[in-house]
Amino acid sequence: MFGKIIGTGSYVPENIVTNNDLTKIVETSDSWIEERTGVKQRHLMKNETTATMATEAAKRAVENAGIKPEEIDVIVVSTVSSNLILPNTACFVQEQIGAINAFCFDINTACTGFMMAYNTVQSYINSGLVKTALIIGAEGLSRIVDWSDRGTCILFGDGAGAAIVKASEAAVFETVMKSDGRKGSALTCYNGFATRPRKIFTEEKQEISDIYEKTNGQESSDTFVKMDGQEIFRFAVKEVPKCINELMEKMNITSDDVDMFVLHQANLRICQGIAKRLKISMDKVPTNVSEYGNTSSACIPILLDELFKAGKLKKGDKIIMSGFGAGVTLAATYLEIC
């Protein structure tokens, strides 16, 4: 037995930053950004945090599913940008929504995160360990983006999406997951605590020594997102279609059998490149990157929530979700709306 999605929810900040707004801080233009990425605007936090956005998305998913928080057996949050290290974000959400019977943990596989969370809870459901799961992708990327770096700051936004997955005899599940750590340098962001000036005891000198210098009084630039955009583009356009094809071969289906391909919203050109490699129409590839930018692990659940609420997903629809990102990691997962 596997699980089916019985409810979704999402939250994005009200604060909208357009491409024209970005021209005030970096050398760019609205047309330059849109032509290369498909992004027109993004939603950025003001008073929110990653954890509060995750909580709001979770509340909406629980309400949409028509369940009580006490029914949730596990909460999994995917994030690379939480304001919390301890407690984990999932435990924060648990306390806020009153899911007192759940066990909780966070995962970090960047833009593939929601996929990994979904696949993880499917394994738990299949093993009989849980019946009802809450999965969340939540990102406050504006806090780890270098707003003087035109190559990255134009891409990212903040937000959270959530789904309730419940055991069902009707549910169908299959997946392919991959990682290639050799390409990890294509997208990096180091922990700010690791570069903060501090003192440690060194056995050699038997004294307290200074390590990790600040540069010009600022934290190391390594604590911001750094990306080799061309390498990520090449990886996504080549490897994601291969991963999706491997999944379809595993299930003995073709792209004609699939009603919709819900892809990570890295940028519009990548989604178009994947569709071209798969030889499918963009009519089968919904996008919302123009509105939100790349929200990493929140992309797919926000898009799913919009599709459900717009009535674009109906019973019997066959869906392939695919995420890809830092690590590098990627996954393709099949689900049927039931």
Model description:
The protein folds into 2 domains: 2-170, Thiolase/Chalcone synthase (Peroxisomal Thiolase, Chain A, domain 1, 3-Layer(aba) Sandwich), CATH 3.40.47.10; 174-185 and 225-336, Thiolase/Chalcone synthase (Peroxisomal Thiolase, Chain A, domain 1), CATH 3.40.47. The protein is built from 11 helices and 15 strands. The chain has helices at 19-22, 30-37, 50-65, 89-97, 113-127, 150-153, 192-195, 229-251, 268-278, 289-292, 299-309, and strands at residues 2-11, 16-18, 41-43, 74-78, 103-107, 132-140, 158-168, 173-179, 187-188, 198-202, 207-211, 226-227, 260-263, 318-325, 329-336. It has a 5-stranded mixed sheet with strand order 1-7-6-4-5, with helices on both faces. Strand 4, helix 4 (89-97) and strand 5 form a beta-alpha-beta unit. Residues 205-218 have low confidence and may be disordered.
Shape: globular
Strand order of the largest sheet: 1-7-6-4-5
Given the structure, what is the number of helices? 11
CATH architecture descriptor name of the largest domain: 3-Layer(aba) Sandwich
CATH T-level fold name of the largest domain: Peroxisomal Thiolase, Chain A, domain 1
Please bin the fraction of helical residues.
25-40%
Global structural class: alpha+beta
Average pLDDT works out at 89
Portion of residues in beta strands equals 25-35%
Radius of gyration: 20 Å
CATH superfamily of the largest domain: Thiolase/Chalcone synthase
